[in-house]
Amino acid sequence: MLTLLFDGIAYGMLLFVLAVGLAVTLGLMNFINLAHGAFAMAGGYVTVLLMERLGVPFLWCLPAAFLFAAAAGALLERTLYRPMYARPHLDQVLFSIGLVFMAVAAVDYFLGARQQIIQLPVWLQGRFDLPYVDVGKYRLFIIVVCAVLTLALQWILTRTRFGSRLRASVDDPRVASGLGLNVNRIFLVTFAVGSGLAGLGGALGAEVLGLDPTFPLKFMIYFLIVVSVGGTTTITGPLLAALLLGIADVAGKYYVPKLGAFIVYSLMILILVWRPQGLFARAVSR
Amino acid sequence: MSDSRVADRAPGRPKPARDPLKGSTDVPVGQGAVISLRSQARWRWWEFALAVAAAASWFLLPAHTPLLTEIAILALFAISLDLVLGYAGIVSLGHTAFFGVGAYGAALFATHVMPDPLVGLVVAIAVSSVAGALSSVLIMRGSDLTRLMVTLGLALVLFELANKLDHITGGADGLQGAQMAPLLGSFEFDLQGRVAYAYCLVVLAVGVYFARRVVKSPFGVSLQALRDNRLRAASIGLAVNARLAAVYTVAAGLAGAAGALSAQKTGFAFASLDVLAFHQSADVMLMLVIGGTGYLYGGIFGAIIFKLLQDLISAWTPQYWTFWIGLFLIVLMLVGRERLIRPWTWWRGGSTR
Amino acid sequence: MSAVVLETKGLVKRFGGVTATDNVSLRVEQGARHALIGPNGAGKTTLINLLTGVLEPTAGSIALLGEDITTLAQHKRVRRGLVRTFQINQLFNELTPLQSLALTVTNQRGASTGWWRPLGRDAVVAETCDRLLRQFRLDDVMDRKTVVLPYGKRRLLEIAIAIACRPRVLLLDEPVAGVPEGERQEIFETIDALPADVSVLLIEHDMDLVFNFARTVSVLVNGAVFAEGDVQSISTDPRVKAVYLGEGHD
After folding, report:
1. Whole-prediction pTM value?
2. Which ipTM value was assigned to this complex?
3. Helix B117-135 to helix B240-264 angle, to the nearest 10 degrees?
4. Which domains does chain C have, with CATH numbers?
C-alpha cells in the first residue's frame, strides 16, 4: 500500500512539473492552451532521438529537452500565440487544438506511431526493497528532480524580482503594465519556461507514462485537471492537485481496474461543480 | 403628493401622462417596431433555396448518398451545438456526449426492444434530453475554463463507461445489432442508402424548423441576452440558470437525434466508441466555426465544407489529414472567424471587430 | 409619513479586511426622489449591488415593499419591481435596441419563456417598444446592433431597458455618466416624468441635477451614512460640504 502511495507521489510530482507551465500561462495570460502537452511530447522525443541516434547519456538529455521545448515555446509564443491573447476563449481553444493536431500528425509522420522506449541508465534501474515499501529507483529519481524543481520555482517566484513581477502580472496585467512592467517579455519568458518544464517532464515521464504521438491528447485532460482543480493563482495549488490526482489514479487503477480513469474524471467533475474556481485557489481580482 | 412638486419645476413643460410605457400624449403610435419585428421572423429567400437544394440533391446525386447522409447528420449535430455555443455562449468541448448517448441509445433500443427506426429516434431524443437536463447543472457556474473542463470530463466519463461496459456496448469493437425495420412500415433501408438519406434529410428539416422557431422566439432571444451579458439578463428579470438548463436539454435532444440517425443509417443498428471520442467534439466545433455561429445555418454550411475538405484531403493523404485540418484551424483562428464568412474583408486590412 | 418601499437594516458588506458597506440603514419612501451622494469609493455602487442581489451582504437585511428580500435571487427581485441601471453600460451588444426592449417588455408580460411564436408577434409588445424607442429617441437606430451605437444612444438604451421593466423602485447608478451637458437635462426630464408611484433612488455626482431633481439626500462616506435629510438642509450642511464638495469649491 505504501508502495502505491510512493508511486502515486512520483506520478503526481511528474504531473505537476508537466502541468505547472500551463497553470502559470493560464493565470498570467488567461489563455487556454490545450497544446501544452505537445511541448511535453517534444521533450520526450528529443530525449529519445538524442539517446538513440547520437548516444547522448540520459542525464544530459534532460536539460536538452528543457532547452528545446523552451526554445520552441518562445518561438511559438512570439509568432503564433501572441496575436491570440485578446481573442475569445473559443478561438483560443480551437487554435490550440489545431496546434495539437498538427504536432500529433507531424510526429506520426516523421517518427512513426509506435511507443518509444527509453533505455534508462543502469544506476536508475531496479528498486530498493525496503521493509514496507518498494522504492523504484527511477521513481525516486523523479521525485527528487521534481522536488528540486518545485523548490526552485517557489524560490524564483518569491525571492527574485522576476518572480514578483510575474506575480504582479498574474494578479492584474493592466495595472502591472501601467506600472511599467514589460508584460510582453514576462509573458514570453514565462511561456518559454513553462514549455521547457513540460518538455523536461515529457523526457522524465517517457519511461513511466509512455511516449507516442497521441501523448498530448491522452494527457491533456490530466493537465487540465491539475490546473482547474488546483487553481492558477498559486504554485502549491496545482502541486497539491497533481499529487491528489497522481495518488487517486494509481490507487484507482490498482484497486478498481475495471473502472480505471472513470473515477478520476468523475471526481474532477464533482470537485469543479462544488468549487468552480478550483480546490485550492484564492479569489482573484479578475 | 406629486402636485406639490409641480410648483418647483421649471415652467413651460407639459406633464406627460401617467405611465411612461403608454407614452406622452404628443407621441403618436408608430408602426416602426411592429414592422421590424414582423420582418425578422419572415423566411428569407435563401432559406427556401437551401431547402430546395437539399431536396434536389436526393434526386440528382444518387451516387453520393453515403457522403450526403453523413453531411446531413453532422449538420444536425452542428446545429445543436450552435444552440449551446452560438446562441447561449457556452463553450463546450464535450458535446459529443449527447451524440453518443443518442447513438448508443438508438442502437441498443433497436437491438433489445424493437427495430422500428422512428420509435428508436424518439427514444434516443428522450434519453439524450434527459442526459442534457441532468448535466446542465455542470455548466451553470464557473469560468470558461471550468465549463470546458466539465464538458470535456463528462464526454470522457461516458467514453470510459462505454469502453468498460463492453458486455452492453461492445466496447472497442462497437455494437453491431439488429437489422432496422422498414421506415414507416414500408420503406426498407436500401443498400445505396437512398431511403436513409431521405430519412436523414426529413429529420434534419424538422430539426431546423424547430430550432428556427426556438431561436426567433422570446426564449431564443433571451438566450442571446444571456450570452451577451449575463449580469444584465438577470437584472431585467431573466432566470439565468433555468434557461441554461432548458437550452442544454434541447440541444442535447437534437444531438441525440443526430446520433440516432448515425446509428440507424446503414439499415443495421450500429454504434462504436467513435461517437464518444474527443475528436468528434472538436470536429463539430470546427464545423460550426467554419460555417459561422449564431445564425442557425452555420452548422449546415460548416458540415458541407468540413466533409468536402475531409474527403479531399483524405484522398490525398489518408493518414495525416489531421495535420492539414490543424493547419486550417490555426490559419482560421489567426485570420479571424468573422472574416472567413465575409470574403470581401479578406483584402481589407485591419480587424472587422 | 408615507410608506417605505425599500429599507435596509444594518447592512454590512466586508471584502476581506475592507468594509465597503458599514451598517447602513436606509429608507426609501413611496414616490421618493432620493439621491445618494458621496465621495468616490464611498461604497455607493456596492450598496446598489447589495440591494439588487449582485452581492451578498455580510450582515443585515433588506426589505422591498415590506417583504424581506435579503436572500432572494437577482431576477426575482426584478420581478417584484426592483430595477436598476448600471454606471458602466451593461447592454446586449449583439442584439438591436428593438430586440433588447422587445425582450424586456415580453419578459415583463410574463411571456419570455415562449419558444414557438416569434419575438414581438404580440402587437402590444411591438407597440410598447415603439413608444419606448421614440421616447428615448432610439427609433432611428432600432435595427442596428447595440455594439455599433454611439455612447449617447447606448446610455439612453441603458435607461430605456430599465424603464421597460416597469419598475416600482428604480435604482439609477449615475444615469448621465459620460453624457454631454446638453443631453443630460433630457434624460433627467424623462426620469422626472416617471409616475409618482415609482420610487427613485439615484446615485449622482452632478450637484445641479441632484438639487433640481431630488427631495431627499443621503450622503455616504466610507460605506456609512454620513448625513441624511431633505435636499435643502443637506445642500447647506457645512460638514457635507467639507467632506464631499472639497475645499470650498462649488
Report:
1. 0.86
2. 0.90
3. 150
4. 1-81+168-250 (3.40.50.300), 91-166 (no CATH)
